[in-house]
Specification:
Belongs to the cytochrome P450 family. Its cofactor is heme. Keywords: Endoplasmic reticulum, Heme, Iron, Membrane, Metal-binding, Microsome, Monooxygenase, Oxidoreductase, Signal. It comes from Dipodomys ordii (Ord's kangaroo rat). With 490 residues, the protein is an alpha+beta fold. The protein has a single domain, classed as Cytochrome p450, CATH 1.10.630. The chain has 18 helices and eleven strands. The strands form four sheets. The chain has a five-stranded mixed sheet with strand order 1-2-7-4-3. Strands 5-6 form a two-stranded antiparallel ribbon. A two-stranded antiparallel ribbon has the order 8-11. Strand 9 and strand 10 form a beta hairpin. Helix 8 packs across helix 13 and helix 11 packs across helix 13. The longest helix is centred in the middle third of the chain and has 32 residues. The termini are far apart.
């Protein structure tokens, strides 16, 4: 009986504390729906389609509002003006990275993507510098992308025009490019270790985008003790981390400080230079997670974009035909495309932009936080408050893009058919936390997709109008539905 009384009293205290914290904190924050004790607004959000829930809230509370995920307040920025004002005009204050428990459990806030403060600034600066200097004057990244594009085309030829699921083939090219940056060498497309590595990345992306992980991220302390896909996520992540660590060990013995071969060599050399600095961020933990971050960001995002691109081009064969016509006019069939070609291909450029806009790959961006107390649009947002910036609300703005729910390259073309830039094009986010690999991703997307369309006609297994382009999940990222197609040589 005493135990029951104790539990009832404990739960009552928890409810009172939750109610008090939520009400005291809400006075300064932007308005929002009234949260319930402990669970906050969780029941009012469709975890299968968070972006639509945010759009509905914005209609009631405006472009800046507060939601409670559990007892934690999160300020949501919805619409171009609010997102731009925060990430660009107040870039430093909104450059923090909020916690992401599903990933923090194995990354421990190391690396580039989910680190914060001094560590993030140092790891990002080093990674960008290394990517820019990649090849040490021997070969540019574009050379390697073109080489990998040739390998991709040869692998697609081996399908002999028979139906295939393109997922792993399309992931191989960007993954090999990242391998050449991090490990110096690429893998054969049939290499079992290589395929297993990509399988782990692909599986984790689906798990991270699932409704279950949205629940886990809000109540990690509770759900840690329950079975579920978060356990598989951790197991896959540990496999990737161990894979990278083995490569690091292989690099240490032949390391030549005067002749770095790849990202790992550069990092190890920096570690040696700072071995007496006890505050140094150049540690094995940061090296391994930085490499894993580059893999994750550079493989799955590009592979998923390519997979979605082929699906959309099959759905709209008249658009694919116009792109192939422009390819014939500018590049022909016997030369691998280069980035200079893009400026001479306005329609193709518009199609590529429209693909990235339409698929809305990372609907709610990665979680931000404010680095200091800030007055924003008349509200006080305390230091450390979580921030969600809805990229969907920018990419689907109906004032900038007429009929944004339609796939239409005309969104990026002027009346004369010339390519038209848009400040609303933010698939890589914007501001200080903009994707560090944006330039590489844009290069890969262009060269790989053009090489595919140069050499193959895309043949769906069903009538184009019956193709489904609605993502199967869009929590962390928008994942396209599975499909098969035939690559018919031209």
């Amino acid at each position: 009986m005493d135990t029951v009384v104790f539990l009832v009293l404990g739960l009552s205290c928890l409810l009172l504390i939750s109610f008090w914290k939520q009400n005291s904190g809400r006075k300064r924050l932007p308005p929002g729906p009234t949260p319930l004790p402990i669970i906050g607004n969780f029941l009012q959000i469709d975890i299968k389609d968070v972006r639509n829930s945010l759009a509905n809230f914005s209609k009631v509370y405006g472009p800046v509002f507060t939601l409670y995920f559990g007892m934690k307040p999160t300020v949501v920025l919805h619409g171009y003006e609010a997102v731009k004002e925060a990430l660009i005009d107040h870039g430093e204050e909104f450059s923090g990275r909020d916690t992401f428990p599903a990933i923090d459990q194995f990354s421990k806030r190391h690396g580039i993507i989910f680190s914060d403060g001094k560590r993030w600034k140092e790891m990002r600066r080093f990674s960008l510098m290394t990517l820019r200097n990649f090849g040490m004057g021997k070969r540019s990244i574009e050379d390697r992308v073109q080489e990998e594009a040739g390998c991709l085309v040869e692998e697609l030829r081996k399908t002999n025009g028979t139906p295939c699921d393109p997922t792993f083939i399309l992931d191989c090219a960007p993954c090999n490019l990242i391998c050449s940056i991090i490990f110096q060498n690429r893998f054969d497309y049939k290499d079992q270790d290589f395929l297993k590595l990509m399988e782990k990345f692909n599986e984790n992306l689906k798990i991270l985008s699932s409704p279950w992980i949205q629940v886990y991220n809000r109540f990690p302390a509770l759900i840690d003790y329950l079975p579920g896909s978060h356990k598989k996520l951790l197991k896959n992540a540990n496999y990737i981390i161990n894979f990278v660590m083995e490569k690091v060990k292989e690099h240490e013995k032949p390391l030549d400080v005067n002749n770095p071969r790849d990202f790992i060599d550069c990092f190890l050399i920096h570690m040696k230079q700072e071995k007496d600095n006890k505050q140094s961020e150049f540690t094995y933990e940061n090296l391994v997670i930085c490499a894993a971050d580059l893999f994750a960001a550079g493989t799955e995002t590009t592979g998923t974009t390519l997979r979605y691109a082929l699906l959309l081009l099959m759905k709209h064969p008249h658009i694919a035909a116009k792109v192939q016509e422009e390819i014939d006019q500018v590049i022909g069939r016997h030369r691998i495309p280069c980035m200079q070609d893009r400026s001479h291909m306005p329609y193709t450029d518009a199609v590529l932009h429209e693909i990235q806009r339409y698929i809305d790959l990372v609907p709610n961006n990665l979680p931000h936080s404010v680095t200091s107390d800030i007055k924003f649009r008349g509200y006080i947002i305390p230091k450390g408050t979580a921030i969600i910036t809805s990229l969907t609300s920018v990419l689907y703005d109906n004032k900038e893009f007429s009929n944004p729910n339609d796939f239409n390259p005309g969104h990026f073309l002027d009346e004369s058919g010339n390519f038209k830039k848009s400040d609303y094009f933010m698939p890589f986010s914007t501001g200080k936390r903009i994707c560090a690999g944006e330039g590489l991703a844009r290069m890969e997307f262009f060269i790989y997709l053009i090489c595919i369309l140069q050499n193959f006609k895309l043949k769906p297994l069903v009538d184009p109008k019956d193709l489904n382009t609605i993502p199967v999940c869009n929590g962390f990222t928008s994942v396209p539905p599975p499909y098969q197609l035939c690559f018919i040589p031209v």
